[in-house]
């Protein structure tokens, strides 16, 4: 682990700091990121990774959270209720392509990474939201035409 | 119909400042936040908070349509843009109007005209406001000399295509202008492939003085006096004060009248600031630009006038007439503001974001702290580094300076480095204490 920080540029550290902040705010315990040469596992005190230290902590801290892992760490077990798809933007959530149509997805449906799961409208501009992962829809968390905030959980997916 | 509920399209201390003004006026507040500002003080103080996007401003605070959507779904009838971000976006002001939202700021036309620096200069000239004397391109040393004689020494020769100081020469003795011109022009030709030059008045010891304007939509334009903001590092103000020290009455009145004339010339509405460069040695002043928004340093004006500028912005936006006249505005005592940034003066003002582990701001009569910070707050890495404005109001400048010294010494911030040690050097500097303020001061302190 010695020399971990030697090949990290300031830009890398900024990116990692952002990830740590995002993780800190989220309800998620782990985050695995693959930068190609560098693979990171960030965690919040669950068994695998040590507690995420504050970013302003002195030098040894990053080495604890940032692992240059030639052998990737084993994937943490997903939480019982599956993965969350969060709203990528603030706006009005539409479960259906148009009035009277069937919803894009329902509980029990299988989705792929590219399956459109809903629309979000911002001032009459509609953005389609892809699932981003393959799996089965286990829960729809938002009512049709509700206003959703950025980052608000929309669906729970059991990963395939 | 008076404003009932406002969307605050900003963050940090100014968002908190706007919420406080709204509480005093009985206006409800909706605070939009980026993902990085969910736990901000403004988010906690507002009646409602909505997360509109990720930390990057370009995907959150700068997204016009998202902001309009947020205003629409929360039932807002107005938008306050604060300063920075979209506050000087004519497009944003126009879109607000199209969506029947009151933009708490000047008209889109005001913003457009003053945002274009060439147009602003033209308007200033037409209104009889002095602009920095300068020439169009000059092709030869003779032409340059003729212009320089009109302007008066010292002059600055600048490369028309220039930048970064190359092809830029100061001429004190016009007898040597021809010689200097050849050298500068050759340097410009080598550097930029274009040897054409222009001549401008050189102000060796400049001061930055600005006048606060307040205008209603019924044609009344008032000034609330001036502020000196000469203590700047790379055009970032560090210390501001009102009134400006060591100005003759003639110069002070000249500045105030020029600012009012300029605002009248464009039918300005709302709070605005007309910035001038003051030549301390020649007693001259020149128009720089107009900031069509509330200014960071507005509190020093509030302290000496007792007028709440943000509340006035809302009243003007409601279409009300200003409730006071120029004669009603009284200037009492002296106010100084020091900006506190999360930066390390010892390390070239590197930003120092991170967790604030201790926060004990100074208190007492005449001391005001405008801030969004608290113990445990994490200064995000994504936005500007200002964490507080410390404002003091004394009976005179000497008292205000003493108060500022004491207040800075008593401002305890734990966990992150701040610019307090550097602003302490400014306010305790002997020349600054004498009122000998200029843009040279910070450079001198940086060098020593």
UniProtKB/TrEMBL annotation, chain A:
Pfam families: Biotin_lipoyl
Pathway: Lipid metabolism; fatty acid biosynthesis
Alphabetical UniProt keywords: Biotin, Fatty acid biosynthesis, Fatty acid metabolism, Ligase, Lipid biosynthesis, Lipid metabolism
The keyword Lipid metabolism is assigned to this record: yes
Protein's recorded name: Biotin carboxyl carrier protein of acetyl-CoA carboxylase
PROSITE patterns: BIOTIN, BIOTINYL_LIPOYL
GO cellular component labels: acetyl-CoA carboxylase complex
Record's function text: This protein is a component of the acetyl coenzyme A carboxylase complex; first, biotin carboxylase catalyzes the carboxylation of the carrier protein and then the transcarboxylase transfers the carboxyl group to form malonyl-CoA.
InterPro entries to which the protein is assigned, alphabetical: AcCoA_biotinCC (IPR001249), Biotin_BS (IPR001882), Biotin_Carboxyl_Carrier/Decarb (IPR050709), Biotin_lipoyl (IPR000089), Single_hybrid_motif (IPR011053)
GO molecular function terms noted in the UniProt entry: acetyl-CoA carboxylase activity
Lineage: Bacteria, Pseudomonadati, Pseudomonadota, Alphaproteobacteria, Rhodobacterales
Automatic annotation (TrEMBL), chain B:
Keywords noted in UniProt: ATP-binding, Biotin, Fatty acid biosynthesis, Fatty acid metabolism, Ligase, Lipid biosynthesis, Lipid metabolism, Magnesium, Metal-binding, Nucleotide-binding
Enzyme Commission designation: 6.3.4.14
Pfam families xrefs: Biotin_carb_C, Biotin_carb_N, CPSase_L_D2
Entry annotated with the keyword Lipid biosynthesis: yes
One GO-annotated biological process of the protein: fatty acid biosynthetic process
Residue stretches making up the Biotin carboxylation domain: 2-447
Domain ATP-grasp residues, every copy: 121-318
Coiled coil ranges: none
Catalytic activity: N(6)-biotinyl-L-lysyl-[protein] + hydrogencarbonate + ATP = N(6)-carboxybiotinyl-L-lysyl-[protein] + ADP + phosphate + H(+)
UniProt superkingdom: Bacteria
Keyword Translocase: no
Record-linked PANTHER family: BIOTIN CARBOXYLASE, CHLOROPLASTIC, PYRUVATE CARBOXYLASE SUBUNIT A
NCBIfam families hit by this protein: accC, PRK08591.1
Protein name: Biotin carboxylase
Organism phylogeny: Bacteria, Pseudomonadati, Pseudomonadota, Alphaproteobacteria, Rhodobacterales
Gene: accC
């Amino acid at each position: 682990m010695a020399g971990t920080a030697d090949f990290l540029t300031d830009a890398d550290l900024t990116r990692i700091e952002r990830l740590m902040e995002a993780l800190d705010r989220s309800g998620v315990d782990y985050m695995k990121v693959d930068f190609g040469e560098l693979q990171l596992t960030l965690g919040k005190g669950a068994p695998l990774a040590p507690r995420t230290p504050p970013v302003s902590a002195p030098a040894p801290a990053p080495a604890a959270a940032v692992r240059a892992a030639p052998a990737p760490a084993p994937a943490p077990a997903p939480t019982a209720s599956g993965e969350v798809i969060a709203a990528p933007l603030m706006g009005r959530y539409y479960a259906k392509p148009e009035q009277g149509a069937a919803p894009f997805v329902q509980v029990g449906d299988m989705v792929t990474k590219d399956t459109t799961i809903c629309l979000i409208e911002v001032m009459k501009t509609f953005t389609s939201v892809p699932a981003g992962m393959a799996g089965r829809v286990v829960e729809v968390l938002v009512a049709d035409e509700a206003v959703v905030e950025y980052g608000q959980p929309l669906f729970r997916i059991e990963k395939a | 119909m008076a404003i009932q509920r406002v969307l605050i399209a900003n963050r940090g201390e100014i968002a908190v400042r706007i919420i406080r003004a709204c509480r005093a006026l009985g206006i409800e507040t909706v605070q939009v936040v980026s993902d990085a500002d969910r736990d901000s003080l403004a988010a906690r103080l507002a009646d409602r908070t909505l997360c509109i996007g990720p930390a990057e401003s370009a995907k959150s605070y700068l997204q016009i349509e998202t902001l309009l959507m947020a205003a629409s779904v929360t039932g807002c009838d107005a938008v306050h843009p604060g300063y920075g971000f979209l506050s000087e976006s004519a497009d944003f002001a126009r879109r607000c109007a199209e969506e029947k939202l009151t933009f708490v700021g000047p008209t889109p036309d005001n913003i457009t005209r003053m945002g274009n620096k060439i147009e602003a200069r033209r308007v200033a000239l037409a209104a009889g406001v002095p602009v920095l004397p300068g020439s169009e391109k000059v092709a030869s040393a003779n032409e340059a000399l003729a212009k320089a004689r009109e302007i008066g020494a010292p002059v600055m020769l600048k490369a028309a295509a220039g930048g970064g100081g190359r092809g830029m020469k100061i001429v004190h003795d016009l007898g040597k202008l021809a010689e200097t011109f050849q050298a500068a022009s050759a340097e410009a030709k080598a550097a930029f492939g274009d040897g054409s030059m222009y001549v401008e008045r050189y102000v060796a010891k400049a001061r930055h003085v600005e006048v606060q304007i307040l205008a209603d939509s019924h044609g009344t334009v008032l000034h609330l006096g001036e502020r000196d903001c000469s203590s700047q590092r790379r055009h970032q103000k560090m210390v501001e004060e009102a009134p400006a020290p060591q100005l003759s009455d003639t110069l002070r009145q000249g500045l105030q009248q020029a600012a009012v004339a300029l605002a009248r010339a464009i039918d300005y509405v709302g709070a605005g600031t007309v910035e001038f460069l003051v030549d301390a040695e020649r007693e001259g002043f020149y128009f720089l630009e107009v900031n069509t928004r509330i200014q960071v340093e507005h509190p020093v004006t509030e302290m000496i006038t007792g007028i709440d500028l943000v509340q006035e912005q809302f009243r003007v936006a409601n279409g009300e007439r200003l409730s006071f006249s120029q004669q009603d505005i009284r200037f009492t005592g002296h106010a100084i503001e020091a900006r506190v940034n999360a930066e390390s003066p010892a390390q070239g003002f590197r930003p120092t974001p991170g967790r604030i582990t201790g926060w004990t701001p100074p208190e007492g009569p005449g001391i005001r702290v405008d801030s969004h910070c608290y113990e445990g707050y994490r200064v995000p890495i994504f936005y500007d580094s200002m964490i507080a404005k410390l404002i003091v109001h004394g009976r005179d400048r000497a008292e205000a300076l003493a108060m500022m010294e004491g207040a800075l010494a008593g401002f305890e911030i734990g966990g992150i480095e701040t610019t307090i040690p550097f602003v302490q050097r400014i306010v305790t500097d002997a020349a600054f204490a004498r009122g000998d303020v200029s843009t040279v001061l910070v450079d001198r302190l940086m060098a020593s």
